[in-house]
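Quick one - inputs below.
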Amino acid sequence: MSDGTKGAAGPSIPITVEFTGGLELLFGNERKHKVSLPACMDDGNPTNIAYLLPYLVDNLMQDQRKEMFIMEGNVRPGILVLINDADWELEGEETYELQPGDNIVFVSTLHGG
Amino acid sequence: MGDLDERCAALRAQIAATEAQLAGLKSELASAQEAAAAKSNHAELSDNQQAQPKSASRWPLLQEEYKRYGRQMIVSQVGLEGEFHSSDMGLSGNGDHESLTMSSSDWAGQLKLRAAKVLLVGAGGLGCPAAQYLAGAGVGTLGLIDGDTVEVSNLHRQVLHRSRNVGKYKVDSAIESLRELNPHPNYIAHRTHLTPSEAPQIFAQYDLILDCTDNPATRYLISDTAVLMGKPLVSASALRTEGQLMVLNNPPRPPGDKQGGPCYRCVFPKPPPADSVVSCADGGILGPVVGTMGVLQALEAIKVITAMAGKGEAQNGGTGAQQSPLLHMFSAYSNPLFRTIRIRSRRTNCAVCSAEATVTLDTITSGSTDYVFFCGSAHSPSLLAPDERISAREYNEKYPGSDLGRQGSSASSSHTMIDVRDKVQFGICSLGDSINIPISNILASTSTGETPSWVPAELATSESNDPIYVVCRLGNDSQLAVQKLKDLGLDRGGKRYIGDIRGGLRAWREQVDSEWPEY
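Output:
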């Protein structure tokens, strides 16, 4: 498990981020990461998934091919985002406000057989 | 020597001919047994309908079938949830419903299995174990569709295929094994890849579809066709050490009916970029991983079949239908091994299963829904100019023996060979004097600022203009690496040659060293 905690002023939200289905290869071949995010975004609103995505690219992603993870400002097609074991589409997608202890999983779909 | 060679060849030919004869006899026997079984089953059913007592007619299964399936028939989920109604799945059209229902409620799941017609698309790593368990369980009709032939590299995971069947159609090879396992089912071979023009008419012959394929375009075609033909779909996939499984379009309802289960497009409305799709050939796959997923497909298929409700009781019949749709993920090197997540229900703007659907059977069969275009195709990149590439043969002529580590007797032959495969592949086989810098290291470094740490010191510091060559498995990653090295200025403004081996180590095998391991 790697520690992606970044020192930030003010209250923070500790969450776990996991990458599977081959996505871990973009993140130093590490599946599980502990991340601490500021409780509020710059606009004062509670931190949501929309904030998390670029944060991961800037702070955790090691591979330069950003488009393998983010395309047109959203996760690229073929990646499922799971919030505490549910598809993020059931939770409001990128507007979901992160809670302390949340487990966010990014899964790349597999096609082999 | 020549005599012995001839004798070996003759013996081989004789063995092949005898094996072919044996296979023919076996398949004749299997069809004869099948016909006999079908005849006696039919006799039992019609006897039952006509209520004519006759010793063989009292029981709907053969004696051998009670023994064969007994262990699964006494499992309550098959018996209870599989409560049988004679109107189910068109088993018996207008017979004596009541007596059949009453006498058969405890083992009805077995009758549902026997009446079921299941199509497996793909007879590979998923299809083999799935078919094996479904045949073993006594599914009455098993269809397999696959246009591929068996290759040696399939055998570690595609467990129905035998070494002697390399080169044979996978469906024929698989059915040969399945017949040995269980001669009762009716096996149907479709020796072709699934095409949009044929998919609907093939699916029409079956009740349930298993997606055991290996590419996004076929996965969308299967899901679309399954929705439009009203068939539940058990979809699985695997790569490296991980697998995924979903039961889709369950219950199968017409497009626009929100009670129906989601389809593949609901979960993945847009296909992944073609260059992000990794095949088992490129990424690797562990046999038991894909085997696990295939076995789970068979399990989900049995659950769907034994839960299939008779007409008129669709609302409360069966399992799964009312549950939230799920995605099961398997990861061999994680803890826990399995993880199940809730996924969305039908998408209100789904292109296939919603009221706003744009994909129809017509657009599929006519080709106006273009799956290849939709999913794109990853072309081998051609990033380098011809003079930045060298063939394996040219390289070998230029630096003879350097693959064996005999480089450098004269200064003129001095050069650096960088192998950018990952270190596992480098460990399997490598050119004698090559150094290993995995492409993932190269791509991970940012292009700004100082020389990244993966650049060998002698390349970064020395003033030498000795050429640098890059090689990989197939000649794709090596091009990226050459570009990267040039971006870093290692070509000293063109004074030093940097290029790659066209076609990679596969070309090396073809052009230079036929003993080079092909993996």
